[in-house]
Description:
The structure holds 2 protein chains of 2 kinds. By secondary structure, chain A is α/β, with parallel strands linked by helices. Chain A has helices spanning 41-48, 74-78, 96-105, 111-124, 140-152, 170-185, 197-203, and strands spanning 2-11, 15-25, 30-34, 56-61, 64-65, 81-85, 158-162, 189-193, 206-211, 214-219. Chain B has 2 domains: 3-55 and 162-294, no CATH class; 60-153, Alpha-Beta Plaits (2-Layer Sandwich), CATH 3.30.70. Chain B is elongated and about 100 Å long.
Amino acid sequence: xxxxxxxxxxxxxxxxxxxxxxxxxxxxxxxxxxxxxxxxxxxxxxxxxxxxxxxxxxxxxxxxxxxxxxxxxxxxxxxxxxxxxxxxxxxxxxxxxxxxxxxxxxxxxxxxxxxxxxxxxxxxxxxxxxxxxxxxxxxxxxxxxxxxxxxxxxxxxxxxxxxxxxxxxxxxxxxxxxxxxxxxxxxxxxxxxxxxxxxxxxxxxxxxxxxxxxxxxxxxxxxxxxxx
Amino acid sequence: xxxxxxxxxxxxxxxxxxxxxxxxxxxxxxxxxxxxxxxxxxxxxxxxxxxxxxxxxxxxxxxxxxxxxxxxxxxxxxxxxxxxxxxxxxxxxxxxxxxxxxxxxxxxxxxxxxxxxxxxxxxxxxxxxxxxxxxxxxxxxxxxxxxxxxxxxxxxxxxxxxxxxxxxxxxxxxxxxxxxxxxxxxxxxxxxxxxxxxxxxxxxxxxxxxxxxxxxxxxxxxxxxxxxxxxxxxxxxxxxxxxxxxxxxxxxxxxxxxxxxxxxxxxxxxxxxxxxxxxxxxxxxxxxxxxxxxx
Lengths: 228, 295
C-alpha cells in the first residue's frame, strides 16, 4: 500500500533529512518507525501525509504518486488517512464531539451521518461521557483518544501516529497502544513513529530503524535497539 | 459546496466572535477607533472645504453705470452681464438704495450725508458675484466693455490671496485625507491579521484533517466582515453624536461660520464608514488566511 522508491528529502539544499529510502508497507501491517531524534522519522511521516514533498525519488500510496498530487487534491487525499500527533492537535475551541465531527464536516457528510458516526466512534475510544468537554478540560490520554477518534471517523486505510505517546505517562501510553492495536486488528494499516523503547520491545511488530536519514534496519517482529 | 456546508461556515464565522471574545473585542475596538478618527477628520475636511467655497462665493465686483443710464434698459444690461463667463449672480442697485446703504455704513455720523441728499451724487450700479474667483480679472475686463457701465471696482489682490489660501486648504486637505485613509486601512488589516495569526495553528490543524481552502477561509472571511461591521457601527454612533454636538455648539458660539448641515452628509458618511469597515475587515482576513493556507 505504501512504497518508497529511493526517497531523499533535502532542506535548504544541504540538510539531508532522508537519503535513498526504499521500502514498502503492506495493507494491514503494524509498523514501528524508530531512531534517535533527528534521524528523519518526522520527515518520513510528513511525506506520507503530504505535508512535505520528496526532493528525490517517489512516494506511492495505493498507487498514487504523492509527489504529483496537486495542491487542491491534498485535502481529499488526507481524508483517506488518519494522523495522530504527540501534541494531539485538537481544535481548542471545539468540544470533543465537535472535534471529531469536524473531520466529517469537511467531507460534507450529512447531519444524519455525523450524528450516527461520532457517538459510536467516541464510544469505541472510551469517551462516551466526555462529549461536551473542551480539550483543556481533558487529560492528555483523553485528548489523544479524541485525536484517535477524529483520525478514525472517516474509516481511513492508514493510521499514521507521530510519537502518539510522547506526552503521556506509561500507564496511559499503554491504554493508547491498546486502542491503536485494536484499530490495527480491525484492518487499518498502522505506521507509528516512536521513542518508546518498552512499547516497541513488548509488541513485537515490524520495526524500521532510521539513522541519519537512512534505513539501518527493517525487521519483522523486531525490538527497539540493536540488541535484537 | 453543499447547503449544509454553508450552514456550517455561517455558524463558524458568525459564532467565532464569542469563542475568540477578547481578540474579537480588541479588533472591533481598533476598527471603531480608526474609523472614528477617519470619520471626524472627513467631517472637518468637508466643513473646511465648505468654508473655502463660501469665502469664494463672497467675491464681489461693483460696476457703476453711466450718469444718464436709462433704467428701461435695465433687464437688457443684466442679461448682457449674465452672458459673461463666470458670472454667478447680478443685482441691480439704484442710486437711492446706494445712498441708504452708505447711511447705514456711516451710522451715527450719517448727518454729513444730509448735505448731499438732495443732489444724490451716486449712480445706479450692479453688484456681481462670480462663480470662479480665479477668473475675476477677465470678468472685470469684460464688464468694462459692456455699454452703459462707467467704472468697475474689485479687490483683485485680496481675491488672489483668498484663492491661494483656499487652493492650499483643498490641496493639504486632500493629502491628509489620502494619508489618513491609507493609515486606517493599514491599521484595520493589521489588526485582522493578528487575529488570524493567533489562530494559525487552527488553520494547520484543519488542513491536516482534510479541510479544503474554502472551508477554512470562508468562516474567517465572514468573521472579519462582521468585526468590521460592528466596529463601524460603534464609529458611526460616535461620529454622528460628535457632529450633532459640535454643530450646535459652533452655531451658537460662531453663528457666522457656514457649517455643512448634518442631514445628507452624516448619512453618506455613515454609509461610507460601514461599507469600508466591512470591506476592509473581510479582505484583511481573506488575505491573511491565504498566507497561512500556503504556509
